[in-house]
Specification:
about 90 residues, 2 helices, elongated
């Protein structure tokens, strides 16, 4: 999963960079074009950027949750093993 997630994140970040570049190009050519049309294009691109950023955050969050779940499972399995084996665990600090 992490390989696919890494590839997806890289792809989304590349698309994000492209979208930001498009906004910059539109802003530079604003004087020569209709400001209302350009503003709509900018607004659409900004929405796409927010969507891409949210998607990237969701992927990162999903990966973190999966990592936590794996760790929780390992701890639970270790505790369950010791409990079934009737071994008392002590905690030292």
């Amino acid at each position: 999963m992490s390989g696919n997630a890494d590839e997806m994140i890289a792809s989304l970040e590349m698309q994000l960079g492209t979208l930001k570049s498009q906004i910059d190009a539109i802003k530079k050519n604003r004087e020569a074009n209709d400001p209302e049309i350009l503003q709509k294009q900018i607004d659409d691109l900004k929405k796409k950027i927010k969507d891409q950023e949210a998607h990237i955050r969701a992927i990162h969050k999903s990966r973190e949750e999966q990592n936590c779940n794996y760790q929780d499972t390992a701890v639970t399995a270790t505790f369950q093993f010791h409990k079934d084996a009737d071994v008392k665990l002590g905690v030292t600090t």
